[in-house]
Amino acid sequence: MLRLEAKAQELLLAIKEQDITDPKALGKLLDQALQLIGDRDSELRRVDDLEEDGEEPEGQQELPLASNKGFQIFCDGACSGNPGPGGWGTVIEIGASRQEFSGSKGHTTNNVMELTAAIEGLRRVPPGSSGTVTTDSQYLIKGVTEWLKGWKKRGWKKADGEPVLNRPLWETLDRLTAEREVRWVWVKGHAGHEENERCDELARTAIKGL
User: Fold this and answer.
1) Domain match, 109 and 151 both
2) pLDDT of residue 58 exceeding 80
3) For the chain, what is the domain count?
4) In terms of domains, do 6 and 74 share one?
5) SS3 for 81?
């Protein structure tokens, strides 16, 4: 975005400093500058629209791949018994590339698997990158977007003074998100969201493999 604006400014400066008398040449330079400024404004409007769309986690929300040049991570966790055998699944899309990952643990909780699924996805995309993480876990969404700041301020204590559960996982997730620009998106589970359903399938298949 900044490069577009800089190029437009360079063209306008060239028009000002150089004694261009040829109407066709002048017109061509002006058209190029206006096009670059128009591209810059379109990019700004697109960013504003994405930020507004992500304010409330109501129903199914996801960022269309065509409008996101970064990564898209879909993640889900599952547990048989809670606590009990658990599994996690994550799907990572970057442009035309798509990868699936899963894992399991013999004795765990559903919340641990939800956190693990997000962590396993994020650690596989490079630091400094940006993108979207989509989950059906309110625990994960509220924890990372609402509760985490307060927990850290209180020395990893909840509002009632009790220690935060799964602290090592939250600390890992906090570090990973600090190194990347992440937009968090909530979708309703088991409601036909294709990638969310796939992650659930990966997690449950991983449990069966224990």
Assistant:
1) yes
2) no
3) 2
4) no
5) coil
Residue 139 lies in a domain: yes
Query: By CB neighbour count within 10 A (0-12 exposed, 13-18 middle, 19+ buried), where does 161 fall?
Result: exposed
SS3 80: coil
Residue 58 maps to a domain: no
Q: Does 88 reside within a domain?
A: yes
Residues 111 and 192 in one domain: yes
Determine the distance from the C-alpha atom of residue 120 to the mean position of all C-alpha atoms in its chain, rounded to a whole number: 13
pLDDT at 153: 96
Centroid of chain to Cα 128: 12
pTM > 0.85 = no
Pairing of strands 84-94, 71-79: antiparallel
Tokens of 54: 């992500």
Provide CB contacts within 8 A for 173, sequence distance 6+. 115, 118, 119, 122, 144
Report, as residue numbers or ranges, the catalytic residues.
76-77, 114, 136, 190, 200
